[in-house]
Structure formats: C-alpha cells, structure tokens
Amino acid sequence: MGDLLRLLMKRSDANARAEVSVYMRELPDYRREAANPQAYAETLEYAVWLRRRTIECVSEDQPLAAEDLAFVGSIGQQRVRHGFSLHTARRVLALHTNLMLREFYDAAEGQDVQELLHLLSWFGTQGTPGAAAYLQAYIDAEHLRLSVAARVRTLTQLLLTGDATAPSLARSLGVDVHDHYLVVIVRMPSQLFGRADATHDDLVASVFKNHLALLSWQQPNELLVLVPHDGSVSLSPMSLSPMASDGDRLMSLVREIVERVARPCAVGTAAGAANALNKAVELARRVAHVAPVEATPRTLSGVADVFVELGAAQLPEVDHWLREIARRLANGPDLVVTLDAYYRADMNRLATAAALHIHPRTLDYRLQRVYNLVNVDPGSVRGVRILSTTVARVLAGAWTQAQALVPPAPAFRVPPDFGPATTGVPY
C-alpha cells in the first residue's frame, strides 16, 4: 500500500463524517434519518466501510467482490424501508462520487502521480457497478412496495421523461418497453371524474389488467394512455391517426375508459418514438381539444382527422366566425346532429336519413333550412369545408363553457374568399 492509500485510510473516519454532514445539509431524507442516533451511526458506519473497502481493493488491484456489491445493494434496500425518495437515492450517488474525488485530490498533493492515476482508474471502473447495485436494489425494493396502479402510473411517467430505470419497473409489471408508442389523450370536458385517488387508481389498475396499456392521470380531467406501436406510420410530430390494424383494440380500450368514467369524452392520438414522447403527448393533447366529445367513442382522432379544426382554433377571427355559424344553426331542428350524420355518411341522403331515423324528405327540409340560415350549400365543396368544421367545433365543446367570456361575434357574413354562395340547394 503506497503513501496515498495509507493517508486515505487514516482519513477515512473524518472523511466519512464530513460526507454524512453534507448529506444531512443537502438531502432532507438524511436530515430526518440523522435525528435517530442509531440510524445516524449506521449511515456513518457504511460511509467508513465504503472508503476502507475501496482502499483495500485498490491496494490489492481487485474489483469489488460479489458480496461487496450485495452489501451495497442491501443499503439501497434499507433506504427504501426508511422512506428515502428516488431523488435522494440518485442524488446521494452524485454527492458521494464528487466527495470521494475531492478526497483523492486533497490527499494526492505531493504524492506519487502513478498511484493517484491507479486509484482514479479503479474508482472509475468499479464505481459504475457499485452505483448500479445500489440503485437497482433500491428500485426493486421500491417497486415491491407499490400497488399495481402506482407502478403503472410511475412507469408511464418514467417513459415520458426517458428515464433509464423504466425497463426495470416494466419487468416488475410483466410488460416490455417498446421503441414506439401511440399516445392517447382522453379528455373529459364536463365535471371531474371522481374525487379520490382511489377512484383514479381503480381505473388505472383495471384498464392495465385488461389491456396491458400504460396510463396515468395528467390532470384531473385528462387521462394519458401509452399503447405499443409498430412504428409503421410516420413518427414525426405530424403523425397520422391510428392504423386500421390497431383500430379494434384501441377502440375497445378507449370505450372501456369512457364507460368507466361515465361521461362523454374527447380522444386525441399521436404516435412517437420512445425517446421523444413529450412531442407526441403535446400533439395528442391539442388533437383532443378539438376532437368530438362522445358518450360512446366512434372515432380516435389524429392530426389527419382534425387538422382543419386545429387551424381554426388557432385563429380567433375564424373561431368567432364559425361560432356565429353555429349560433345560427342552433335555431334549426337538430341541424348540427343532421350535418354530422350527413358528412359521416359521405353526403348519402338515404344513409343519412336511416341513421337519423327520419324520412329523406325531412332530411331535405333540414338541409334547405341550413342553407336558408347561413347561405351555404351543405352539399357543395365550400359547404363541406365550412360546415363540417363548424360541426366538429360544436361537438368538441369549443364554445359551451367559454361562451359567456367571449365578446359577441361581429355581424355574420360569408367572407368572399370562401367562394361565391350558391343560389339553391340541388337535391
């Protein structure tokens, strides 16, 4: 053992006490732990052991033994039992590394450079498995203490932040971490779902059990779901809506969620790579805010389905103009519902009438009424463009809550750049 290692061995007790003092100053969990004399003594004893064991291994040019790593892991498990947070578990590793390096350099003044380099080489090589043993044991123990719902929520958040510990938690749930996900945002515009965390957790646990989908409440009225995706469509922020092959499974999942919350919801989707899910989440959220609110979901909207509504929502002048059209349509007999069915049926009169359970001539009257109210032919290209967007905004609940806060729209007129109005409705 060289002079540097002997000096570090001599200073191990004092350095350990200084390290624990830093932990107490920087980390509330350690401050709380130090209030118990026995817990403080155990923390100090571990800090001393770690330093002395490091010096012994360096002097013998040996790696940390399996029993050493097991002991380090047992400390990580102990931290879980004592209520230490994951943030503390990670932060203490960084603090320990910085403090040990400082101790090395403080002791190295005037010592053999080769001995210092050998010490630093060993520390760099063995620090990685040591830190991994501590953190992995902490995470494994922490997962065992959490309910299924809590683990699902935690895994969802870890994936959203790209956390490296996500695969470990995924294994505890029996699922894999995938390269791509479809982000599904379920928005509840009406009153909040439930008042207790238990209500939210029951839904999370039930949906996960039935579909192995990861989900987490992002807001009291917004649920985020992550579904594995094959990446076969564009994964740019402008991803299209779900592929047909995914449709049945996704629809079943979403309908179960909506059924459990027992209120109409809007659904927005966007696909993204696992390392960039935040962009997909933001896009899916924007889609959900303009998607139709439905008691029984019929559509899983993506950007391709609502890009016109997204654009309209960004321009207040257009939004006010469409709102005035919606106000006028409200004066007719179920005109919004009629137009929704009409466009869903690709403007087929017989199919629309059958869907509405009305006579085709009644449908003709309603479409004529639309023309009389807004001077736009529902069957024209211009009409489809204007009226389908208006209907979509109404069904998304765009103006129901904000109506009283928005100043009255200007006098209604059809802007000339939308094309000339037709003189009648041909049927």
TrEMBL record:
CdaR GGDEF-like domain: residues covered: 165-290
All copies of domain RsbT co-antagonist protein RsbRD N-terminal, residue ranges: 17-138
Every PucR C-terminal helix-turn-helix domain range: 335-382
Pfam families in alphabetical order: GGDEF_2, HTH_30, RsbRD_N
Family: Belongs to the CdaR family.
Annotated protein name in UniProt: PucR C-terminal helix-turn-helix domain-containing protein
